[in-house]
Amino acid sequence: EAQVTQNPRYLITVTGKKLTVTCSQNMNHEYMSWYRQDPGLGLRQIYYSMNVEVTDKGDVPEGYKVSRKEKRNFPLILESPSPNQTSLYFCASSLFGFGEPNTGELFFGEGSRLTVL
Amino acid sequence: AQSVTQLGSHVSVSEGALVLLRCNYSSSVPPYLFWYVQYPNQGLQLLLKYTTGATLVKGINGFEAEFKKSETSFHLTKPSAHMSDAAEYFCAVSDQPGGYNKLIFGAGTRLAVHP
Question: H/E element holding A20?
């Protein structure tokens, strides 16, 4: 089954304790991206990757890191989480990548709800 | 810069009634427009998209949307609401011509359907 898998789905942590949210897709997609969803704000892009080893900042990258060492995986790293990073996080992927116009559907994972105390 | 405004954070309709969810966009380039639906505790799922060509776009589950350039609108409609349509709906616009590096989402509209 074609899917985007995120883990963990739910996490409660404390300020300053490093954490990683993993994201994996099995559709051989070039493009991957992370969004956060907050009430009244919709979804805002954190980082995106057009291809392996190619990443770029979205609209709200502060406090986050990403890496794209393999095509299928795109982990989101919070080096020192703070309460303002409490949110619902979505990983998404689509077929097209670097050098091609991305006109395709974004496929979303089921979300990871993070609470930072 | 591109932006999306969804009018009405909550919409309530009766089962069988017309569904109309409003989306207006601002874009300095020919936009690509999308509607996504989010069911409780799930990720977003594409309902339909407009890229080029026919301005009336049909999607899944009986939804459709019409791109109106003169009104900078992309409203989502369904002739007859079903209980299963209760969800949150997001309109989105591409950030560049001919494609996107990111989709810019509206704040969402939560649709309630009552018997």
Answer: strand A19-25
